[in-house]
Structures are given as structure tokens and as C-alpha cells.
Amino acid sequence: xxxxxxxxxxxxxxxxxxxxxxxxxxxxxxxxxxxxxxxxxxxxxxxxxxxxxxxxxxxxxxxxxxxxxxxxxxxxxxxxxxxxxxxxxxxxxxxxxxxxxxxxxxxxxxxx
Length: 112
Hints:
By secondary structure, the chain is mainly β. It is built from no helices and nine strands. Strand 1 and strand 2 (31-38) form a beta hairpin.
């Protein structure tokens, strides 16, 4: 069975750079968590393409019983290479989204 998962993405969408399935909200169903890659300009250069004004966005998509809906979108990361994991690193009983940014920093996002 083939099914395409559609999601609202930003202008100049290039593709999905990284994704995972994890139950981040504790309801027993995995959410689809992905990194959307965008580029403002695509410039041909000696048989290659140079991307400028790149941005990564993390999306969390939740199954509503018939399709995936956007649950959350991060602010933009202005370099490529954003990675994440989902774990309860604070031992609170709730999972956090731990983001390794392309700037060499770690961010922890958590539901209120």
C-alpha cells in the first residue's frame, strides 16, 4: 500500500532532510517528526546547484484518524544539518524534543 503524506511547507521547499516516528505527546500513537529543508535561491554552477538562503524547519505531524495534521512547526534554523531526538531527558514523565542545531548548540523543546 502506498500513501503520500502531505503537509504544509514553506515556499522554496527542497525536501525532507531527516525524520523519525515517536510518541511525543504520550497518547500511545507515534507522531511523524521531520526536518523540512528550504532554499531561497537555486543557482546552477558547473554541473551543480548552489543553494542560498537555506532554512530548516522541524514539523511534528499528528494522525487525526484520517490524515496527518501539523501539530507544531519550529522557528527557522538558517543552516542545513538540523537533527533531533525525542526522549524524557528531564525525567518528568513527558518527552522532550532535543534538537542539535546546525550552529553546534542543543535546544530542548517541551509541551506546556
